[in-house]
Amino acid sequence: MQGPMVGAVTPNEITIWGRLSGPFRGEIEFATTYTFDESRHLSLTATKEEDYVLKWKLTGLDPDTRYYYRFKVKGNTPRYQEMVPPFYTKTAPAEGEPVRFEVAFGSCVRILHDSEQNIWPTIHRFQPDVFFWLGDNIYGDSLDPDIISEEWKRQRGISNLQPFNHSIPQLAIWDDHDFGLNNYDRRHPMKTETLKLFNRFWANPPSGLPDAPGVFFKYRYGGVDFFFLDVRYHRDPNKEPDHPGKTMLGKMQLEWLQTSLRASDSPFKVLISGSGWTKSKGPTGDAWSAFLYERNLLFEYIRENEINGVILLSGDTHVGELSAIPWSEKGGYDFYDLVSSPLAQTPNEPRYHRIPELRIRPIFTREDNFGLLQFDLTQAEDPVLRFNLIGVSGRKAWAPFVIRASELVNGVSSWKDKISKGLPDTIHW
Q: What distance in Å separates the CA atoms of residue 230 and residue 243, rounded to the nearest whole number?
């Protein structure tokens, strides 16, 4: 009915998501050759309780290797697939080997505004190693779990998305419109059911904690640690006055993040949030701007514990942005918020009254867009991250942003060297 879609991959595993049309046995045949020499098989049986969704975990695989896969029923290829080439995807690089790899990301996909979604063939042409959905992946905007489920199925069936789903590994978090209603928070009366649906429709690694439900998890690829955050399930109301107890993450998720960051040996540590990190939306906005006590507590924790290499990703804004939070002024280093939005709907007009701490690139509103992160860890002495924002046309939005691991260390101020020419160097638009 929907799928297949490749989910999380590791050096030795590939997870594939799919939904059948009834309580049938779904079998995947997979091999390293197009002709399926020495192939292996994995069978699962779909149940009505899980809406006939299956997640096949292919294990015992070789790192950095292309695997072909196809579906079989009762040992035979279905007649309608006999003339279709086999699907394929790739495992992650081996741990410990310095590599180059690319991650694409984006947010805000509204099927009612864009039912074709031409962004997917564009991203597919760039062949990223993995793709991250940063929230508002559907606009469910309902408290009825059946409607949310229907929206996931509609989005998963978009024609332009199919080749992308078949080959590019994908992971996801949510934001307000796929969590519940606009700007929704911990008061959502159906959040337990919404979380169950989210976990059903994505092939993420295990998420949340036993006493702290949510979509948050850590993922490692190519020697880089990615921290996917849940900014909805435990979130206090935006309009509550900010104070030390006000939280977006909840106590246990924040402690999990702090502990995980401290334990990370990655040269880059990427924090992924549906809500934007800067102060631009103001003290009651639907962003970290309404939770500055908690945000700044996290940033101070990073500084005090000398946790190097933190980069921020976010979405939600319906414009592409690149801003900086100059923590170098406090003895730390500068935090950069890399923003891609929207993937599939009309971009907003620039809202120049929204003023981040520092604007590093002009606001991009020309077209739908996605972010592309290029990690180069082969330069072992000083790994490099390059960020491009790319429109649905395939054109780059502005000059690439390049940051080295050595610039994400306490005491280093880097933003003045990164800012676009022509922007005021104290910037406040």
A: 20
3-state secondary structure of 25: strand
pTM, whole model, 2 decimals?
0.97
Inter-residue long-range contacts of 43-49, CB under 8 Å, 24+ positions, other chains counted? 46/19, 46/20, 46/22, 47/23, 48/23
pLDDT of residue 428: 34
Q: How many residues does the chain have?
A: 429
Query: Locate tokens 């849940």: which residue?
Result: 230
Distance CA 54, CA 201 (A): 9
Q: Are 217 and 229 in contact (CB under 8 A)?
A: no
pLDDT of the residue at 212: 98
The structure tokens listed for 35 are 């002709």
Do 238 and 280 form a contact (C-beta atoms < 8 A)?
no
Distant-in-sequence contacts of 53-57, Cβ < 8 A, 24+ apart: 53/17, 53/18, 53/19, 53/200, 53/201, 54/17, 54/18, 54/19, 54/20, 54/26, 55/7, 55/15, 55/16, 55/17, 55/203, 56/15, 56/16, 56/18, 56/26, 56/28, 57/13, 57/14, 57/15
In this predicted structure, what is the pLDDT of residue 298? 98
- Second CATH level (architecture) for the domain 97-417: 4-Layer Sandwich (3.60)
Outline which parts of the chain fall under CATH 2.60.40.380. 2-89
Say how far apart CA 387 and CA 401 lie, in whole Å: 5
272 phi and psi angles, rounded to 5 deg: -115, 120
Q: In what order do the strands lie in the sheet with 25-31?
A: 40-45, 25-31, 66-72, 87-90
How far is it, in rounded angstroms, from Cα 137 to Cα 426?
A: 35
Q: What is the dihedral of CA 74, 76, 79, 85, to 10 degrees?
A: 130
Architecture of domain 2-89: Sandwich (2.60)
pLDDT for 361: 97
pLDDT > 50? residue 426:
no
Facing residues of 16 across strands?
Answer: 6, 56
DSSP 136-198: -SS----S-HHHHHHHHHHHHT-GGGHHHHHHS-EEE---HHHHSSTT--TT-TTHHHHHHHH
| pLDDT tier for residue 80 given thresholds of 50, 70 and 90 | confident
